[in-house]
Amino acid sequence: xxxxxxxxxxxxxxxxxxxxxxxxxxxxxxxxxxxxxxxxxxxxxxxxxxxxxxxxxxxxxxxxxxxxxxxxxxxxxxxxxxxxxxxxxxxxxxxxxxxxxxxxxxxxxxxxxxxxxxxxxxxxxxxxxxxxxxxxxxxxxxxxxxxxxxxxxxxxxxxxxxxxxxxxxxxxxxxxxxxxxxxxxxxxxxxxxxxxxxxxxxxxxxxxxxxxxxxxxxxxxxxxxxxxxxxxxxxxxxxxxxxxx
Length: 245
Hints:
Layout (H helix, E strand, L loop, with lengths): L3 H17 L3 H4 L10 H16 L12 H10 L6 H23 L4 E3 L5 E3 L3 H17 L15 H18 L1 H6 L2 E6 L4 E5 L6 E6 H8 L5 H4 L2 E4 L1 H7 L6
Parallel strand pairs: 3-5
Antiparallel strand pairs: 1-2, 3-4, 5-6
């Protein structure tokens, strides 16, 4: 089984190969992230690396909510061309992965603002989640503009992604966790069972791992992703609102 850092490295290498073949028109095409072009998605992934390597590359955003901070950081660097955005990502990636390996070995809790607080050993899974989701769901179709075959969605790549989701889900959906109990069944590659909330589950939701990643990041509806859901209607309505970053 690959480690989270190895999956980030593999997806990063795939991203560099993909980017090397893009035209400037493709770089500027709208991605699956509303308001972001393909190159903005790559800039965002580079920005998360720069946070580890050299935060001075980014505007000062301490105390700003995560989504707003990420948007501001992307907007501040929109003047780059697609090729420059890719080169910037490549420059940040290697030292960032070294930093992640060092952080992973620390026996401490890491506060990530409104994203929650996590063991340092789990931090690489956040980067695995970010790479997996943005490349497959935002750059490639049906949401993204790129055609062809995205990088694999096998058990090795999905395991750390699901580790992050399982840890982040209750912290990033605290109100729902206090009022709703669910059983989430993930099937196929990366299969696992995830309990959400406490007490006897009021509803059960079953989907493949790739579909689970998409619906729990609000990148697709249950109907279009083939999600199977049974149980209390109110609990299911709450389940549809869950979102992980």
